Sequence to fold (346 residues):
Amino acid sequence: MDLFELCKKVPKVELHAHLNGSLSEKTLTTLDVPQHLLEGYQIINNLAVTTPEKLNECFKLFKIAHDATASVNSIYVATKHVIEEFYKDNVIYLELRTTPRQESNMTKEEYIAAVVRAIEESKDFITVKLILSIDRRHSMEVSKNALNIILEMHEMYPDIIKGIDLCGDPSQGTFHENLFIEARNSGLKITLHCGEIKNDQEVLQMLKFKPDRIGHGTCIHPNYEGSDELWKLYKSSSIPTECCLTSNVLCGTTSTYSKHHTREWLQDELPFCINTDDKGVFNTSASEELLHAIENLNLPKTFLIDHSLSAIEYAFASEKEKMKIKEFLMDWKKQNQGLFNETVSK
Ligand code: 6MZ
Fold:
């Protein structure tokens, strides 16, 4: 079995996937996206793929996906598609994140309920949890209103809505820490996009806040535009980091896969997991991300299954659900030991 086949076969855990960034071209077509928007998506997608340093370009793509999911039915259909695509890639545990949006004929509550409905309908074949995002570009007032709705919906769907995220264009906006303190006090887990670009002061504030996980963590280590002080603090907190290789390479925040900052996590044996970020925008999959990791970061084949076993530890599901998935993964590992012993042909 070649290495990519093995990456596909392994049961996987995905913890950092933005819903609207995960829409494949096929999904956008199904959603009746007007032809000119779809063409725009393809053009910018190609630009992003062939030209690095495109963090700004990728943020334009989200507008196209947002136009395609501007109704209750379209966000519901989009969620179904995204879940199915992860499932077909052998992802057994998925945490989707999305920013609740109000549109002319949809409230934020209706948006969340539609996503939850799609998740509930998938529960027989894949475990999916929802993280609701606050966009760092939004004002305190808009974010506070979003948080109130998120807390209300969390009370209605406590088994599905598990966490809250801070995301959005890292070159804009701010981290409204008070809102995240309130979310934490209401029982939500916290993940923050942290240090995706250099911003020492904010990284310091975020690390001191001690979220349950951070996203990216690019500019923390001194070799990657961070500092000794930040790295020391990060190491002492040992917060699991959601690494997104292709996203960072295509956005130009990392020069190549083999120079990705995950190397420092491996070197210092710090907790991390590998993720897709926006599989539609970056034209990737959970299996491809694992392949890049194995091929470029000098990892053994057993990393594939051991990655799922460690990532599930960092998940926001209940301890009981995590234990069940862990047992499944350990059984799978035992039964498929041979796959990791045989010589891999590329
Ligand atoms: C920061 C990102 C992101 O929420 O509409 N998003 N935020 N850094 C990134 N790195 C590339 N990729 C995606 O999904 C799209 C939204 O996710 C955030 C952005 O705010 C984007 O608008 P949802 O489902």
The two ends are 8 Å apart (CA to CA). The domain at 3-341 is CATH 3.20.20.140 (TIM Barrel). The longest strand covers residues 127-135. The chain has a mean pLDDT of 93.
